[in-house]
Amino acid sequence: MKNGFIIAIDGPAAAGKGTVAPVLASKLHGYHLYTGSMYRCVTLYCLIHAIDITDEKKVVDALGDIAIAFKDDRYFLNGDDVTKRIRERDIDTAVSTIADYQGVRHAMISQQQYIGKEKTQNGAIVIAEGRDTATKVFPDAEVKIYLTAKPEVRAKRRLKQLQERGLVNATFEEILKETIVRDEQDMYGNLGYLVSDPAKYGYDIIDDTDKTEEQTIDAILAVLKKKKLL
User: Fold this and answer.
1) How many CB atoms lie within 10 A of CB 149?
2) What residues make up the domain containing 98?
3) Which of 10, 87, 96, 197 has the most CB atoms lying inside 10 A of its own CB?
4) Neighbouring-strand partners of residue 205
5) Does 1 map to a domain?
């Protein structure tokens, strides 16, 4: 197996990236970089400190007071473990606004690229997941995976996640609507950071609508073998 390279996994919300990436990292003894956690940490900081998330300047100005760290798939905001907190409903609904600010994206991408460079130079396989990891963060990634599924399936997965966290008020119809709106924002927002034509950007597209987690991971491993990285 080759060492010191990047696997970039992109795709829409609830496509399975967050489930597959850490398992893949474990199988490959690699480093899991969840890029979305950074935007969620910024969002949480703004909510905690009552910073108006619709005011781009105030959000960007706050970045100097925010320190984000990772350790063993746990995420820390200014020293506090916020792994569970950044997955809560208020963060879900606000993060897309924060992530759409160019100043925020520039700062987060710079950090992500630094982490990727440091890890790969030390021989690690980096499994990075997000929306634009293969286009803007790591455009030279050896492996570019676009993971997707039908909106109805993704909404069902998202609803299950929320129910497991005790958030039972949301209905399937509400989550499906949110999923479709989020897709539109991610693809056609100010920055358009989720591509609408992944094949054009060199992605290997994996539709996991009817796949189990294990089958999806096997499909990614098959891409690595095809590229002679395994």
Assistant:
1) 22
2) 6-226
3) 10
4) 146
5) no
